[in-house]
Specification:
Strand content: under 5%
Structural class: mainly alpha
CATH class: Mainly Alpha
CATH architecture: Up-down Bundle
GO molecular function, one term: transmembrane transporter activity
Main location: membrane
Shape: globular
CATH topology: Growth Hormone, Chain: A
InterPro entries: MFS (IPR011701), MFS_trans_sf (IPR036259), MFS_TsgA-like (IPR050375)
Pfam family, one: MFS_1
Order of helices and strands: HHHHHHHHHHHHHHHHHHHHH
Distance between the termini: 69 Å
GO cellular component, one term: plasma membrane
Number of helices: 21
Oligomer: single chain
Amino acid sequence: MAHNQPRAGATGSELSTGRWLFAFSLVTTLFFCWGFAYGLVDVLNAHFQEVFNITKTQTTLLQLAYFGAYIVFAPIASIFMRHRGYKAGIHLGLTLYSLGAIFFWPSAKYQKYGGFVGCTFVIGCGLASLEVAANSYIAVLGRPQYASMRLNFSQGFQGVASFSGPLIASKYFFEGENAKKLDNVQWVYLAVAGLGLFLNILFYFCYLPEITEEALAEEIHAVGITKDEQSFWKQYRVLFGFVAQTCYTGAQVGVASFVVFYLTEQGVGISKSKASNMFSLCQVTFTVGRFVGVVLLKWIDPAFLLTVYAVMCSLFCILVATLPGWGGVASLYCLFFFESICYPCIFTLGTKNLGKWTKRGSGLIVMGVGGGAWYPPAQGALADRASSHRSYLVPMSGYLVMLIYSAGLVVDQSVKQGFTFFNKDELAEKRAAASEMILPNPADADLEKEKVDSEKGSTEYVERR
């Protein structure tokens, strides 16, 4: 079977269809893990406020721990994967994910809010490792032209898990006696730990082709892209991508963290249990938007589409903060729809053509998820002083930063290559251009041959003379 193995460090586009599909499907299962955990974290805010009698700002300690872990651990994970590879990074992430989930049990049994915060930090470290590995692997697993489309598809399954979390919470956390108890929380997280353990065992026995940075660098150098030969700190696309990802993720997390509070305060008779169900529908809208984005990204340039979506996010965030009643609720659903493609597009645009810096750049972009640690406390402070309604003005700043980043990429691309609405294969175009420069024009070759024959004939005539 050795002859069927891809060469060491093969790029994603060099894998056979069967190996590509298997690797893609296997890594996509990871997105379900952190989608489920993320969905639970958001609804636990409101549940813990009821159980522990704490303020809205204090409930955001969960977000601070969860997303603060990305700031701390994403760079460590990227360094680890540069030396040990993607598969080892996945094992590290799943191990930390399971350990954090297991320790939810004693925290729930002894009702220690600080224990929940600590466990959430450990889970966040595990998910930071998984995001560096899985996002980066999916992005390079095939033609760069469709990196955004692939990552949106895989992250669509994160969305599926995200809305199942609030559905479970509405049934088992907020109804009846469970509204003031933590018994069911411990069993849900023990099941989460079991899922992490199962996936860890599955990945151990499954072959996952390693895609090296050397192979990626070789691929772009072959068409004349040598930007990665400069210092990492001159890779401005990824550096500004980190800023955009930090602000966007902060905005997204802030929006989701206060959905239950927002809906129950809209004055239209929405209970916490119903609000949790409606939050699930918000996540459904988000997931549908992501799969719609997969189709659009096959044809539309990712930077251009991200710019359009950034404009819509900014607009609907203003409407959520200003419209009363059901108008604000409808705007909230629209906001979730237009958030859908933003994270994957920022990631793939930021890590595009990084060559030997691919894993380091991926770690930096994932580190940007740490923006979710400081947006919710800022939004919570405004919610406590004014209202959850007005607090939605805070996330708008994140969408505006994302808009500046994506619009800047569109302008830069237009200056260098001309404006394009369509998604183009940059590497294929450069290969074609290089071939045209290297291969002679057939008509020129014929003229050259006639010239040589003519000179040869003249020489023979002189020699005969």
